[in-house]
Amino acid sequence: MNTKSQQNRVCSGCKNEFEIDSGDFPLYEKIGLLLPEKCFECRIKQYLAFFIFGKFRKSVSDLSGESLITVIPENSRYPIYKSHEWWGDSWDAMNFGQDYDPSRPFFDQLKELQEKVPRPHQVGKNNTNCDWCDDTWNCKDCYLSRSQDDCENISYSYRNFKVKNSFDIVYSFNLQNSYDDTFCHDSFNLNFSENSKDCIDSFFLFDCRNCQNCFMCWNLRNKQYCLRNKQYSKEDYEDLLKNIDLGSYKNIEILKNEFEDILKNEVVHRENFNLKTTSSVGNCLTNCDKCVNVFAWEYSQSCRNSIRGLFAKDCIDQAISWHDEVSGDNSCVYGGYEIKHSSWSNARYSEYLDLCDEVEYCFGCVGLRKKKYCILNKQYTKEEYEKLKIQIVADMKKRGEYGKFLPYSMGLCGYNLSCGIMYFPDTKKDEILKQGGYWSEEDLSQTDGISSLQLPDSISDTESDISLQALICPETKYRFNISVAEYEFHKRKNFALPRLHFDQRIIKKMRRLEVLKSYSSECVYCQKHIDAFYPLKWGYQKIACEECYKQNIA
Ligand SMILES: [Zn+2]
Ligand SMILES: [Zn+2]
User: Fold this and answer.
1) Percent of the chain, pLDDT > 70?
2) Which of 13, 29, 208, 232 has CB 3.0 to 4.6 Å from 236, enough for a Cys bridge?
């Protein structure tokens, strides 16, 4: 008899009761994980302490003195090397190797090691001219953007895959020449849009598919020349569009407010926004099968309790992880098989790693590359490794350490500068400090510049020298510039210049993708009860169950 599924547990983090889904047990067992002591949200919250959002700043390499741009905050607990130096041969993480001391907690020893090993100024590899970026992989000519793979010539963007020649794009796939989009797929010249796919030359679309030359439309399929969901002739559409001034900031604000009202009152929202996904529970899943309690996840099978990942199979309890299999309790793992309790690593048959690349059979290591049978960055023979690992696991079990994720005290920055604060904006300093984490008190605001609100309303009243003007964001008080490329892009498209700092633009767009639980709702057509992923405060009036949505929309 399986009584475990009925068992209610008290979360060691928030102290609320939580339940472990009966479907989780086989996967915990297969991967070799102990049952979690924290609820789903508290687990994700801790994983995100290992993912810096931060604010780009200038600094120098602790190895060469070479200047660099990084999101790693000042006074971090570890040295910073320039990325190419970190991946180079001029240093060896094995030189920081430590003997295991059975008289002390293992996490203390691992943290000590972590503080000695340098970190690259940006995460990622195989990039060309992407110095002012972070978490960047296989990209070219990107600027002030984070979390991107196979992108080219994009700026002020976040979490994108195969996006080119675009600005201000969040969580999108295969876009070109586009601006200010969130969760869009396979589109060209798509602007100010959300949740749309296969669209061309359009503006302010929500949940449209295969539309071209459309403006302020929602729930449309295979349309052309529609404005506010009304069909026009090509000539009439073009005439109407000529009278809409996207170069005026005031007008853009009015249009954005109209778009928000449409989202609340007109759009039929499908209970979730999963695409090409089967037998799954969660939101923003694309090409997934049998994924449960998973959010913003792609091309994966049989994953559970995870957020933001792709190309994963049989994984559980992960944040921001990809290309891994039979793995769990990880944050920012970018490849692996049977990897557990780790962060920023690509490994096989390993546990408690941070920043390790292509290692296998390693335990509690930091910054290693292509190693085998290492513990605390020291080399052992296979036999020695196995013996010592058994001893450490036994000691960790006695201290209640084993099976837990890397502690908050090993987090990479003040929690308020981590991605955690995007998903858990109400997190309080005390709560994080109590768990051994960090909080940044640094004031990142600046005053030497003009308020961006003083810019002329219309882009046509500005010249290219605007790029030289230091601007202060009215919301964050962060200083920013309109880059030369950004000015040219906006001028070519005749789009008003932004008034907010680029990070604030990203954070605002991300809000729609940070929902990690469902809300009880009712289908607007059949009144059936549904679990939809739209908080009540968003005020969405029309939410449809999967079947009714298919019948009525597509
Ligand atoms: Zn909790
Ligand atoms: Zn229905």
Assistant:
1) 99
2) 232
